[in-house]
Amino acid sequence: MSAPSSKLPPFDASDPLGIDDLLSPEDLAIRETVRSWADDRVLPHIAEWYENGELPGIRELARELGSIGALGMSLTGYGCAGATNVQYGLACLELEAADSGIRSLVSVQGSLAMYAIWRFGSEEQKRRWLPGMAAGEIIGCFGLTEPDHGSDPAGMRTYAKKDGADWVLTGRKMWITNGSVAGVAVVWAQTDDGIRGFAVPTDTPGFSAPEIKHKWSLRASVTSELVMDEVRLPADAVLPGVTGLKGPLSCLSHARYGIVWGAMGAARASFEAAVEYAKSREQFGRPIGGFQLTQAKLADMALELHKGILLAHHLGRRMDAGRLRPEQVSFGKLNNVREAIEICRTSRTILGANGISLEYPVMRHATNLESVLTYEGTVEMHQLVLGKALTGLDAFR
């Protein structure tokens, strides 16, 4: 047995498990690039954007995100960065540490709209859309959820019928991130041959995307309804590479992976705010961070935060090796978002009344995560995915 090292590295409170030791210099450089961009371009303004319920300059932000390679980051070719999935996950964490709305912009652009075209589109569709989307010059959205069909997309009513060589698309989609500013919408619809995806230019007659207002979550994000009123599309608008629900569901699995990382960013920002507050806020003659009950809260939050980051890292390595299963993505999404919300709520108790103020990020992250908890698969759906995997029995119906 080899002798133990005579000198251990110092304890790093920001990385208590030493997870950074698993990252390469390139991983760390990408993380720093995205963190610096978010610190410079988002954090100084995000409280105002959130309070006003808007994301001004979204097109400029998209171009900036394209310039640092954050859009379609893990895709290859067509101007995409070709980063690893771990690197993409690190970017998601840093973006959501700023705000869930910013990470949603990137996730929908890259993991849903771009990924659908990249994986299932024709070569012509890829060349038409992906370079501009990777650069942030074209914003994309992904239309699957409908007003009456969320967790059960197989029941969607949006329909595309053939009319000669053309397709005519009619229906509505709801809660669509980026919809009102998108140049292309990937829309999933019923056809006589099953569910198909369509790359829809948003300037096509009959297409509209009214923005959804009065949200109390994801306020610094563009959320829209998509309305298709007999939208006539050429034959080459259909994505030729897939028929059936496996198309949109594979896109959702890719996006959920980013959420596994992103939720830990929101949790980290809230936890860090709680730690700093606990060290400076005095009650009964000393900082509240010196009281046992506060330290117990901080210790429990640190456990869940860094376990969640370690889980995200593990899933990323599996994804890079081509071994990540959808059930494992459900495992990560269910655990990390649920724990992130609890970290935000506990952080709020440490900040007391100040925790509800936009001067601190905690309540903003907590309310954002209420949306993240249920979009791209509710808690119940992921529980049933895991339940079926564990028992072999399907309890969805």
TrEMBL record:
One of its GO terms (molecular function) is fatty-acyl-CoA binding. Pfam families: Acyl-CoA_dh_1, Acyl-CoA_dh_M, Acyl-CoA_dh_N. Gene3D superfamilies: Acyl-CoA dehydrogenase/oxidase, N-terminal domain, Butyryl-CoA Dehydrogenase, subunit A, domain 2, Butyryl-CoA Dehydrogenase, subunit A, domain 3. It comes from the Bacteria. Its cofactor is FAD. Keywords: FAD, Flavoprotein, Oxidoreductase, Transit peptide. The keyword Oxidoreductase applies. It is an enzyme of class 1 (oxidoreductase). PANTHER family: GLUTARYL-COA DEHYDROGENASE, MITOCHONDRIAL (PTHR42807). This is Acyl-CoA dehydrogenase. It comes from Streptomyces hundungensis.
